[in-house]
């Protein structure tokens, strides 16, 4: 695959049109040089060899300019005028309509339409309609302008070989287009999956809309980077964004590892949910594990930065469990989002906490108290509602903690977690 990308272009860096131009110019150049060798035995072989060899060299030159210099968009008309001149000359010097050169106008026209960019499509249509009409008219009224074949064997050999070449060219063209269109489709699907969960993306593509759904047992994780505003004034914009991007990329990876769905980032805040859109009873533990992993990663990065004499940020986290509604809003730049008191409570738990703390609600505590060391920490006041008991997750319980760090699970916990033996909730989920 690497050698294909080397010659034709990488789909991640080059557009479909660019890769198609590279492919067609390279293949056409090779075919023209092959034809130059094949017509040596025919009459007027000098002219035919010169036409095929010259056009082949031009195609290789345009391939080089497109692949290396990336100026394929400026080569549209030179490319097609070279093809049209070559086919017109071959018509006159190679048997006219009997020689089968007009077959090549079909793939040439298809290529012209695929590569068209800012050019007027009506001009392209007019050229490809008027050229064969003109050539037929010239042949009809001035047969002496057309070089005939010396023998029938020459006619059959040349016309047959051209027909085979056209079939090969069309086959290659269809293969290239199909393959590149599949690549573009996969790129679009990957981009969509980076915006929406897979099941939601499938529903959106199939139905054109996403029906909002209620979830009764979902956990919401909020994470905020403390000290961000203070340190941001000491860094230029590029460094700031690069640092934040590195952190959030790792958070994205950890969310995937613990089966959480990233919802959004707002500035230096990060939000993810568990049990949405794929319902499960493990999402509370998953969320706490993910939160501890966030803390461990940030602690490691702070240590690395301190060795370099640089400040680094810390995180403040909040997790709540409860019902919520999830769906897609908007028609342009749409997002998958969640709503409900559970979301507001999780946000409040996060904002109430201190740096390096993982705050959880009583509902979360009841689900994870058998596995994690949780310390009561008073209550959180909610506007217009009763106060919510607050707990801080200090790490794993001793029987589940790694010997080096209480925030890292030991092998026993990993085995129980992966086997599902930790989870005793067997009630049916709606």
Automatic annotation (TrEMBL):
- Please provide the record's keywords in A-Z order: ATP-binding, Lyase, Magnesium, Membrane, Metal-binding, Nucleotide-binding, Transmembrane, Transmembrane helix
**PROSITE patterns in the record, alphabetically?**
GUANYLATE_CYCLASE_2 (PS50125)
Task: State its location(s).
Answer: Membrane
What Pfam families does the database record attribute to this sequence? Guanylate_cyc
Q: How does it sit in the membrane?
A: Multi-pass membrane protein
Question: Transmembrane ranges?
Answer: 20-40, 46-65, 72-94, 100-116, 123-141, 161-177
Which chemical reaction does it catalyze?
A: ATP = 3',5'-cyclic AMP + diphosphate
GO terms under cellular component: plasma membrane
Q: What class of enzyme is it?
A: lyase
User: What is this protein called in UniProt?
Assistant: adenylate cyclase
Organism, as annotated: Leptospira meyeri
Species lineage = Bacteria, Pseudomonadati, Spirochaetota, Spirochaetia, Leptospirales
């Amino acid at each position: 695959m690497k050698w294909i990308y080397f010659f034709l272009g990488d789909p991640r860096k080059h557009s479909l049109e660019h890769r198609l131009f590279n492919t067609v110019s390279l293949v056409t150049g090779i075919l023209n040089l092959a034809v130059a060798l094949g017509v040596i035995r025919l009459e007027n072989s000098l002219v035919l060899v010169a036409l095929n060899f010259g056009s082949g060299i031009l195609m290789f030159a345009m391939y080089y300019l497109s692949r290396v210099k990336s100026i394929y968009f400026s080569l549209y008309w030179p490319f097609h005028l070279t093809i049209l001149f070559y086919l017109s000359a071959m018509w006159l010097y190679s048997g006219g309509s009997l020689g089968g050169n007009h077959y090549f106008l079909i793939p040439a026209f298809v290529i012209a339409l695929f590569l068209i960019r800012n050019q007027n499509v009506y001009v392209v249509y007019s050229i490809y309609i008027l050229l064969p009409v003109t050539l037929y008219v010239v042949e009809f009224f001035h047969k002496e302008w057309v070089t005939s074949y010396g023998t029938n064997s020459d006619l059959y050999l040349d016309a047959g070989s051209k027909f085979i070449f056209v079939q090969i060219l069309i086959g290659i063209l269809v293969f290239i287009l199909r393959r590149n269109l599949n690549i573009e489709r996969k790129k679009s699907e990957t981009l969509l999956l980076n915006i929406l969960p897979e099941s939601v993306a499938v529903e959106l593509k199939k139905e054109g809309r996403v029906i909002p759904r209620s979830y009764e047992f979902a956990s919401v994780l909020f994470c905020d980077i403390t000290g961000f505003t203070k340190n941001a004034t000491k860094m230029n914009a590029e460094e700031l964004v690069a640092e934040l991007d590195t952190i959030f990329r790792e958070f994205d990876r950890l969310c995937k590892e613990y089966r959480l769905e990233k919802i959004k980032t707002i500035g230096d805040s990060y939000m993810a949910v568990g049990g949405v859109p794929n319902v499960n009873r493990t999402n509370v533990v998953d969320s706490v594990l993910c939160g501890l992993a966030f803390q461990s990663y940030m602690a490691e990065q702070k240590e690395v930065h301190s060795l370099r004499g640089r400040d680094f940020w810390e995180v403040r986290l909040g997790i709540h469990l409860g019902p919520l509604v999830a769906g897609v809003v908007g028609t342009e730049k749409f997002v998958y989002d969640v709503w409900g008191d559970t979301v507001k409570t999780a946000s409040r738990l996060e904002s109430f906490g201190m740096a390096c703390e993982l705050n959880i609600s009583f509902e979360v505590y009841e689900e994870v108290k058998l596995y994690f060391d949780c310390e009561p920490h008073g209550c959180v006041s909610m506007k217009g509602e009763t106060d919510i008991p607050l707990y801080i997750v200090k790490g794993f319980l001793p029987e589940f903690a790694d010997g080096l760090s209480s925030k890292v699970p030991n092998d026993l916990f990993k085995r129980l977690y992966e086997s599902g033996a930790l989870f005793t909730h067997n009630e049916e989920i709606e």
